[in-house]
Here is the input.
Amino acid sequence: MTEFSCPLESTYTELPEVFFSKLSPTPVSQPKIIIFNQKLADKIGLNLSDLSTNERTAFLSGNLIPKGIKPFAQAYAGHQFENFTMLGDGRALVMGEHVTPTGQRLDLQFKGSGRTPYSRGGDGRAALGPMLREYVISEAMHALGVPTTRSLAVVTTGETVYRENEFPGAILTRIAGSHIRVGTFEYASLHEDKAITQALLDYLIDRHFPAIKEKDNQALALLKAAIEQQADLITHWMRVGFIHGVMNTDNMALSGETIDYGPCAFMDVFAPDTVFSSIDHKGRYAYANQPYIAQWNLARLAESLLPLMDGHREEMVEKAEDLLNSFEQVYKNKWLSMMGSKLGLAGIGNKDEKLITDLLDWIHQNSADFTNTFRDLRKEKLPHEELYNSENFKNWHTRWQDRIEKEEQGLETSFALMRSVNPVVIPRNHKVEEALQAGEEGDITPFHNLISALDKPYEDGDHLLPYQAPPQPGEKVLQTFCGT
Ligand code: AMP
Ligand code: MG
Here is the structure.
């Protein structure tokens, strides 16, 4: 096999050395590409098409490191549930940063590539099922218009990983705006050397918040920007019924992207207290709790940034608290406006919040399907379903019709708005599990079919019908697992 080059940079390793460890992936015995995202490679201008299949497989499994690439694992910490822990990339390596033709810097990361100095007791490996799960959900989130890391490839390693059972080992190639987490700042601030956190802040601002470069009191400005960014992200999650499942501070990325798809899942029937994760016993990361947890995580970011804020400590504590307290209103405004668009309203008036919450209450009380209820509303005529024949629903529907008719831009525009935010299809858990199970048993066709069904989630089509139906009682997925 010839050596080849793939021009990846590694500006992250210009940070102080505490932030990373340079090392290479551990080779694997029999790598095989299971899926490769050519559309994504084309979109970001990553040209691997000159490589032979063997070379490409060797690269994506970590067996062949292109000339000039200097991979590294990132150090970070984090609050897992409420407990502070030292973490770091225990089974991941950033192979380098790819700069797109339009100048965007993206991390190319392998997940499952072997042990690192941060592995603690872990084996550094990943199982095929969870990597396919990250692939399909992250790609679906992207198609749904939710900021997210992307998935470029999954390869199997030919090795077995041992969890509660034996599973085929796999490596996912993840493409991300960056991997700087709230937990990276928590880690930096442990060093009692302001210069360390300052270096991380400067790097983050350069990479994701260039507008802040011109501002005074950059640490405070960053906190404000992160509040906006995370409120935007959570609003998207709530729009599509997504439950992350492990919103630990190490899983909150300051690129503003959804990151680390573990026990995440989409809701079928609408219930605000929905939890899928098998480890979330108290419902900390339930659907409706996500905005509060985002605020809690941002408070951890604020604590880490406090020493860098210019001004007297007490005054800065007060300013940071004011900002953190503003999260609720910032989020609520975004949520109201998003829910308004789900109902075809371009702006929100006095009585609209009640219109929104009455519908959500009705969906909840009737255990209706979250996605399909909004999908049905976006049609100009409601389907003749028994569910929609109740007096309660009809009353709500009349109120809504009266309201939407008052929209200045006209009904056509309202329906177009609804079609742009209410998906026809989401990655329903039972369909995901079905595809992953087949994939683990060697049949990747259902997985490919699922990926293509989720490609244009706002466009109707008869071929989507099998993916739109809520699970039958026997198909319901009640719990999801981290699979680490
Ligand atoms: P996650 O649940 O994927 O967000 O991971 C939490 C932490 O556990 C991170 O520091 C991971 O790198 C680490 N980790 C997860 N799985 C493994 C593994 N198989 N081997 C080593 N470290 C792991
Ligand atoms: Mg994580």
Observations:
- Residues 250-251, 260 surround magnesium ion (ligand 2) (CB under 6 Å).
- Residues 11-176 form one domain.
- The chain has a mean pLDDT of 95.
